[in-house]
Amino acid sequence: MRRIAVITTGGTIASSRVEGGAARVTAGGRDVVAGVRIGPGVELSVRETMALNSFAMTFRDMDRIQRAVRAALSEPDVDGVVVTHGTDTLEETAALLAFNHRDPRPVVLTGAIRPQDAPEPDGAANLADAAAVAAAPLAVGAGVLVCLAGRVHEALGTVKRHNDDPDSFADPERSPWAVVTDGRIGPLRPARGPHPLCPRDVEVGAERVAVVSAYPGADRVAYDAEVAAGARGVVLVGTGSGNATPALAAAVREHPVPVLLTSRVPAGTVGGVYGGPGGGADLITAGAVSAGRLRAGQARVLLAALLASGTPVAAEAVGTWTEDVGPRLVPHP
């Protein structure tokens, strides 16, 4: 018997339409699992951790989820963990878990695009697939994974790509790690596996990390305000390959806080491609560090984890988690 711990946190997978037509979390953890068709030889153990829409989650909530995963994996008879989660910020929680995961047993995050009372809800099927992955010997050593619509992705680099399509998550630069068909796992390529940020678990709840976006004519008002409010780091979302404006480059240069540079473009290189005031090369010279393949949400979690662990925010440390997180081996179909 393969024993899978299911950590429930709310989200659309636990939601129904209420008066007025808006979806809200209405189901507890056991209700989410009830009726899910699980393959033979698999047993689910439910641990209800919270009941939130993920857009309302904070870093402290993500720390709670991380602790729940750690507690489940402290039990020797647990073979894997599934986390049910709202899709809005699933990629951030997945990243935090990946940065701390050092156990060969898999952790699989899943959720739903359609609420429980939709004409064609997708949550139960996603949970069944995620449980099958967590129980599969093939997933041992695969690390932290995201599973929706029969596709299984490695956590880092995976983002929500669509608000309506049940196949809502993808890594823009890689194919899925595996597919799930009728409870059977079909790997498509090797997984990177666990690669923790540091020897001890890192919690990020005390860290304030801001996200500031570049756009045509962007001044530095938002950047200055975030630093004045106590931000210990900034994720700068550039245009193109990581470019901003002269005003934002001046702010990066003048404020002594670490900056990770990413892009609003879903895929491709981020860094010192362009010179001139505000270009990526100017931002790197000013002190920004490229977040590589990680986009804003996961880059923010990485910066918070680096700050919390006392790790210098330098290109050498960040590169461990960005460029080699997922080399462009297989185009996404």
Description:
The structure is a single chain. The chain has an 8-stranded mixed β-sheet, sandwiched between helices. A 4-stranded parallel β-sheet has the order 13-14-15-16. It has a two-stranded antiparallel sheet with strand order 2-3. The protein has 333 residues and is of the alpha/beta class. The longest helix is centred in the N-terminal third of the chain and has 15 residues, at 59-73. It is globular and about 60 Å long. It has helices spanning 29-33, 59-73, 90-100, 123-135, 221-228, 246-254, 280-286, 296-309, 315-319, and strands at residues 2-10, 15-17, 23-25, 42-52, 80-84, 107-110, 144-148, 151-154, 159-160, 169-170, 178-181, 184-187, 209-213, 233-238, 259-263, 289-290. The protein has 2 domains: 2-187, Rossmann fold, CATH 3.40.50; 209-325, Rossmann fold (3-Layer(aba) Sandwich). The two termini are 35 Å apart.
